[in-house]
Design a protein that fits this description.
Blueprint lengths: L5 H4 L7 H16 L6 H10 L3 E3 L4 E3 L7 H20 L28 H5 L3 H4 L10 H11 L4 E4 L6 H12 L9 H24 L14 H14 L4 E6 L4 H7 L5 H9 L13 E2 L14 E7 L2 E8 L9 H13 E2 L7 E2 L4 E8 L2 H4 L1 H7 L13 E6 L2 E2 L2 E2 H4 L16 E5 L3 H18 L3 E6 L17 H9 L3 H11 L5 H20 L31 H10 L11 H17 L1 E2 L1 H14 L4 E5 L14 E2 L6 E2 L12 E5 L5 H13 L4 E5 L10 H8 L2 H5 L6 E5 L14 H6 L7 E4 L3 H14 L8 E5 L11 E2 H6 L5 E3 L12 E5 L2 H10 L9 E6 L1 E3 L3 H8 L7 E9 L5 H11 L6 E6 L10 H15 L5
Parallel strand pairs: 4-7, 4-10, 10-11, 11-15, 14-15, 17-20, 17-21, 21-22, 22-24, 23-24, 27-28, 27-30, 30-31
Antiparallel strand pairs: 1-2, 3-14, 5-6, 6-7, 8-9, 12-13, 16-25, 18-19, 23-29, 26-28
């Protein structure tokens, strides 16, 4: 037999140790269902049958009972035994700080597998542990070695990882001992110094600011050295952006020691003292408090890592309110934005090594908050993956005052990650060197496989949930142990002293130096005895309105772009019906000068790209459009390949990314917000499949998008497209909950629009793209149409795109010709305006008594424009707001006070619409139609 054919003719020689156990498991599954396993393994089993192994004297097969049956059984049981050690060894590991290893019962014993030590001695070591060190020479020693490997203060869960290459690599890293670096004396001393800084800082806060909340890190002090190590490894690998997301537990210590936020600034925040002069002059840390600000343990910061005068990397800790895990997808968005180059046409160019995300989770929040699962699901998705996130569960075994048995249904807090095949390492936070080993394997795995990795850092919480709590009220036994338990600094110092690396006086000196630094910083804080108060100072751009921007585009350019939008390679086969639709759309513009909604959007996107502004659009079914209206991505009917004309525009100067999102609102809107914050020059749009789906992302609207600038100075120009309109489709797909966005409208928090024409949509998108470069930028919420997408009333003339601009208010064509006769002024927004227009077209006779305004931009409220109209109506008797939403929803509760403020004296402001209701819309289309007819009839009937 030729050497080159040996593997082909005998595939089982490639499988030993854990690989053999894995293959045997897969063969058992193959016998039950051949199609349930990896296709490559299935092909091997189809060809070669059962796995077999060769020892010195015989070949043993899983199905060959005629050859050394007893021997076969012994080897098979031995393989099963060591496989179970790998799979369940974590249950016997010393990963809990308060658990005595001696209290655990021995498990996975030889007699349970009908094996003796002599049986194991006869089995070659490579069959049980292929990567064992040289001193392990037989099966018995392999068994003993593996038991020790898997019962240390670091434990491993890899059995849920199905990728063969990944699992093999992970096992090899552990069993070869490669994850345990031989730390130098200097490295060990630096870890001790870092732990002393962390402990000293927390204890200084504890005694100096008695009873003030700080959400101490104590019990998980090793989190800081772990972050140090992650960042150091990433920077050495060439990563220049590291983004961190975490809740408030330990945040102050991370800010101080990882981000370099000066102690004196943190102390000044406890004192409520002025701190502007305390910011370092070299600008190594960026802190922005917005104008209304936030509490100290929600704030983020930026730090530059420099090598002499060269910036090597930027570390960002994201601002995060108390909604814990909701920062997760935002940081993923930061990271994807930092990885991509958007200066050329086509999809952005992604380099996953440019940036890395680190997410620090709470042990109660990780399984408890659904946003975690949503975020983990982004791990491998084309439009959202970031080349591997390092997850750390800061596991103090308690959530607020609730113990683990009451907060999760799983063995570990980390078990959720198993569903996404993310490798898990559990590590005792009292063992610093085991923690460093966990970092090493995490980073090596990310660098090799570009996938997520989870470190379950298991410690405890030295005090209550906050420093005003008494934890012994709810966990008396636990806190009896905590009070007696030495800190990790004490434990590590003792260990280093025992190894002759440091002396007691060295430990004392390090501690004294830390205290000296803290005291000096505290002395710099001014006016420690007097709390400072001041009025909130709003920035100049607040209430100054948006600048007047040119959004019109030359006719020739639009016609050229229109031609390019219906071009695709000759070999590309577009679905015939869709091809006719697209060509008819292009012809309508060229011959009749008509622009319907989807074309207006496409022309806006195309022109924005030629201006040099990148675009990113995501949402469920956004490539096609929920209502089959967009079709920006075309699919070849023969090959399934896809193509977008927006990637091939002749004059495009920036990238265009469009991705169908997973069936998730929270993680996706969070991701897009984060992307936009980190890539502020990019027009980022998120589209809800239906507007009411935004309900599932409400935290992001409340805590981040609407308030992020006021709290943290965090600018965003994110666009949110929310299909909205009452067409008798029932309560779930009618309302985009306009009222909620208007309730959050203040201090120029965002723009809220409800549009009625393609030209209006075109101009507002182009205006938003221009605003991205300006201080006045703010998010944009658009209630987009559903049935109106193809309504002739929304079609615009080409000239409106070439010569016009966005109009916050549109006066109804055909009305208001005799302003001196107008008695009723109707105001409305969105789809109801088209219903009113349809009704107007059926009315014969005099309509001079009524005029109507379409309020296209509800916020900022167009007070000046509406007031100017009111001044032209000398005979006005009433102002009426008309809407299709129930009275307690829609725009009425926002608009009522605004209209009363500008109404002429003695002129009442009235409401016509649906009555107050619990549910947004009727479930019966006939009832809807009747009520809709009542509304428009009442609005257009004058009975006085």
């Amino acid at each position: 037999m030729a050497q080159g054919n040996s593997k082909k003719n005998f595939p089982w020689e490639d499988f030993h140790g854990p690989n053999l156990g894995y293959v045997m498991e897969q063969y058992d599954q193959y016998k039950l269902d051949p199609n349930s396993i990896d296709i490559e393994l299935k092909e091997i089993f189809d060809t070669w049958g059962s796995p077999s192994i060769t020892t010195k004297d015989t070949t043993i097969s899983a199905e060959n009972e005629t050859i050394s049956t007893d021997k076969m059984k012994k080897v098979a049981e031995a393989v099963r035994l060591v496989t179970n050690i790998r799979r369940y060894g974590h249950l016997n590991a010393a990963i809990f700080p308060f658990e005595d290893r001696n209290e655990k019962n021995e498990f996975l014993r030889l007699e349970e597998y009908d094996l003796t030590e002599e049986d194991l001695k006869d089995i070659p070591v490579n069959l049980l542990c292929e990567d064992a060190p040289a001193h392990v020479t037989n099966g018995l020693e392999a068994y003993q070695y593996l038991k020790e490997v898997y019962k240390k203060s670091i434990a491993f869960e890899f059995s849920h990882v199905h990728n063969y290459e990944e699992k093999t690599w992970l096992v090899k890293m552990v069993e070869s001992g490669a994850i345990f670096e031989n730390l130098s004396k200097e490295k060990r001393i630096s870890i001790l110094k870092r732990l002393t800084e962390v402990e000293g800082f927390e204890q200084f806060l504890h005694r100096t600011f008695v009873g003030q909340k700080r959400f101490s890190i104590e019990g998980l002090d090793m989190l800081v050295p772990v972050l140090d190590e992650l960042i150091s490894n990433a920077v050495q690998a060439g990563t220049d952006t590291i983004n961190i997301g975490m809740a408030h537990r330990g945040r102050l210590s991370v800010l101080a020691h990882v981000l370099g936020k000066p102690y004196e600034i943190i102390f000044s925040e406890f004192q409520h003292a002025p701190n502007k002069e305390l910011v370092p002059s070299e600008g190594s840390i960026g802190i922005n408090y917005g104008w209304s600000g936030d509490v100290k343990y929600h704030l983020g910061a930026n730090k530059q890592i420099k090598d002499e005068s060269t910036v090597r990397a930027k570390v960002t800790l994201a601002n995060n309110p108390s909604h814990l895990e909701f920062i997760d997808p935002i940081v993923e968005g930061y990271t994807r934005a930092a990885q991509e180059t958007r200066t050329e046409k086509g999809y952005p160019k992604q380099n996953e090594n440019n940036a890395m995300a680190i997410l620090i989770h709470g042990d109660a929040a990780f399984p408890g908050e659904g946003i975690v699962a949503e975020t983990l699901n982004l791990n491998k998705l084309t439009g959202y993956q970031t080349g591997g996130t390092i997850h750390i569960i800061a596991n103090n075994m308690i959530g607020f005052t609730t113990e683990s048995r009451d907060s999760r249904s799983t063995t570990y807090a980390s078990d959720l990650a198993k569903g996404y095949e993310i490798p898990i390492v559990h590590v005792n936070a009292d063992d610093p060197e085991a923690c460093i080993a966990a970092v090493f394997i995490a980073m090596e795995y990310r660098n090799k496989f570009k996938s997520d990795f989870l470190i379950d850092l298991i410690g405890y919480r030295r005090f209550g949930h906050n420093e005003m709590d008494e934890p012994s009220m709810t966990q008396p036994k636990l806190y009896e142990k905590v009070r007696k338990h030495p800190t990790v600094r004490e434990l590590y110092a003792k260990s280093l002293q025992g190894g002759g690396i440091v002396k007691p006086e060295d430990v004392e000196k390090i501690s004294d130096e830390v205290q000296t630094v803290l005291e000096k910083a505290y002395q710099k804080v001014p006016d420690k005895k007097v709390a400072q108060t001041h009025e909130i100072q709003l920035p100049e751009f607040i209430n100054s309105g948006l600048p007047k921007l040119k959004t019109a585009v030359e006719k020739d350019k639009l016609l050229q772009l229109n031609d390019e939008l219906v071009k695709w390679p000759e070999s590309f086969n577009v679905f015939s019906k869709l091809q006719r639709i697209l060509e008819r759309r292009a012809k309508a513009l060229k011959e009749d000068g008509k622009v319907e909604w989807a074309l207006g959007e496409a022309l806006a996107f195309a022109s924005i790209l030629t201006d040099g502004t990148p675009i990113r659009l995501t949402g469920q079914d956004s490539q096609r459009g929920t209502f089959a209206q967009r079709h920006i991505v075309l699919h070849d009917v023969d090959t399934g390949e896809f193509y977008s004309p927006l990637h091939r525009l002749d004059d495009a100067k920036a990238s265009f990314a469009i991705h169908n999102s997973p069936l998730s609102e929270g993680s996706v809107i969070g991701f897009e917000y984060g992307y936009n914050v980190f890539a502020p020059e990019t027009l980022v749009l998120w589209e809800a499949q239906y507007g009411d789906f935004a309900n599932a992302a409400q935290v992001f609207f409340d805590q981040f998008i609407a308030a992020g600038r006021a709290k943290w100075g965090q600018k965003s120009g994110l666009v949110m497209l929310l299909p909205h309109g009452f067409e008798g489709q029932g309560p779930e797909h009618s309302s985009g909950r306009l009222e909620r966005f208007l309730q959050l409208a203040a201090e120029d928090s965002w723009q809220v629009a409800n549009l009625t024409s393609a030209a209006q949509y075109f101009h507002i998108l182009r205006r938003q793209a221009d605003l991205l470069k300006r201080e006045e930028v703010r998010p944009l919420v658009i209630m987009t149409p559903k049935s109106l997408l193809r309504n002739p009333q929304t079609v615009s003339d080409l000239n409106e795109l070439c010569e016009g601009e966005f109009k916050p208010v549109i006066e109804q064509p055909g009305l208001g010709t005799s302003l001196e006769k107008v008695k009723r002024l109707l105001l409305c927004t969105g789809k109801i305006a088209t219903d009113l227009t349809d009704k107007l077209n059926t009315i014969e006779g005099d309509l001079d008594w009524v005029h109507m305004l379409r309020v296209e931009e509800l916020y900022p409220f167009p007070k000046t424009i509406i007031t100017s109209v009111l001044e032209r109506l000398p005979s006005l008797e009433e102002i009426v707001w008309v809407q299709e939403e129930p009275q307690n929803m829609g725009a009425w509760t926002f608009i009522d006070a605004k209209l009363r403020e500008i109404a002429p004296e003695g002129i009442p402001v009235k409401y016509i619409g649906r009555r107050r209701r619990q549910s947004p819309a009727e479930g019966d289309p006939n009832i809807h139609k009747t009520d809709q007819e009542r509304i428009v009839t009442e609005a257009l009937t004058w009975n006085k």
